[in-house]
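Checklist before submission:
- one chain only
- standard amino acids only
- sequence pasted in full

Submission:
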Amino acid sequence: MSNTSIKITSDKLSLDECYEFVTDDSCGGITAFVGTVRNSTQSKEVTQLDFSTYKPMAIKEMQKIADLCLEKFSIKKIAIHHVEGMLQIGDVPVIITVSAPHRKAAFEACEFAIDTLKESVPIWKKEHFSDGEIWVNAHP
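Returned file contents:
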């Protein structure tokens, strides 16, 4: 059985699915990061977000992050799930869950995973405003 669950989908993400994947009787701590589309950024009102991916490379990079977390931190399991496509305010574009025997490792691995994902995975975000749109990071 794998200790990682990696997914990119256009379907709604499930916190329950991610939580259930990392649940393990040997673990005393489970952490979860749930990214949510907010309604404003840099003093502009956001109406929606559009996530584009280079899916084969993104999945490969997400797997590298998960493997690095398993190696670097004392964790048991990790799930990294991300959405592609158009999202509305309040929708969830990313969920990361981590289980570990002790809470500190779970927190550290979860934070490392989201920070590294945002830096290195080819997933691009376009913010839509009432008066236009802008790519937040590198163009696809």
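Reviewer check: Helices lie at 15-22, 55-72, 103-120.
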